[in-house]
Amino acid sequence: MKNILIIGSAGQIGSELTRELRKRYGNDNVVATDIAPEKFKDELKAGPIEALDILDTQKLADLVRKYKIDTIYNLAALLSATAEAKPQLAWKIGLYGHFGVLEVARELGTAVFFPSSIGSFGPTTPHDNTPQDVIQRPNTMYGVTKVSAELLGDYYHKRFGVDSRGVRFPGIISNVTLPGGGTTDYAVEIYYAAVQTGKFTCPLKAGTFLDMMYMPDALHAAISIMEANPDKLVHHNGFNVTAMSFDPEIIYKAIKKRIPDFVMDYDVEPIKQGIADSWPNKMDDSAAREEWGWKPNWDLDSMTDDMLKVLSERFKK
Ligand code: AKB
Description:
The protein is an alpha/beta fold. It has helices at 12-25, 57-66, 80-85, 87-108, 141-160, 186-196, 215-227, 248-258, 270-278, 286-292, 300-314; strands spanning 4-7, 30-34, 49-51, 71-74, 111-117, 128-130, 164-169, 171-173, 199-202, 210-214, 239-240, 244-246, 263-266, 282-283. Helix 1 (12-25) links the parallel strand 1 and strand 2 (30-34).
């Protein structure tokens, strides 16, 4: 990777990935784009920024030519619960949008990163130690777009030689830009609530286990897969990657150990609960470990220490 363009730089992953890629590849070599560039934090203005709607394939191609881009990170998406509220828009962004990215990649010879998700699995997928290659019949629009984009990436690789790669992200926990409309958002919100109010109402039931990951590991995954030696890759798109699996009680106890007055109750949101119930409890990520050396660095305890430290500093009374 020499010249990189990110679609969705103002989002939860995009804002931090832009910063990390610029640290490694230089400010001028990473173009930050978003449909809402007014949301860019000031530090993102240290390098090139552009307004881009992912559905504007012509503009994407113009930017790829203008900045001599060799790698596109496509992070544009509606998260799972929002996608259930707006399925038509989720399809357009997730599928038409990604089709346009792959077409630009085919014509102009760029590599592509696509973030698939635990949402690409469905109720008939084995929930424990979910294998890399297994039945994927998601029953959400988010999942339908994710599994379709994985397949499109594989197709463009085989048929046209496009270097399309990607991972299946679990819930990502972070403290720079809040996620919005995701099923796993509770695992971010709980830390903010613990620090700001000492109380949290959880939208998922106790016993709902899901894969999760701290943002530094997610950035490491998104960059390492694109830097991996292509000769070693058997899979290309949709590598399972995970760092931890917990349910609301386990994360609550990890926080309460550090903030003893913290309290949590439940008010289950049926849409989110239904989505979470259809997703794996814990994925097997051995293919990513074997093919490109994936290994997470953060677990629940180290992440909780860091999240609480950063947020307590920020919201100090
Ligand atoms: C969501 O909850 O929608 C996302 C995801 C797991 O893909 N965070």
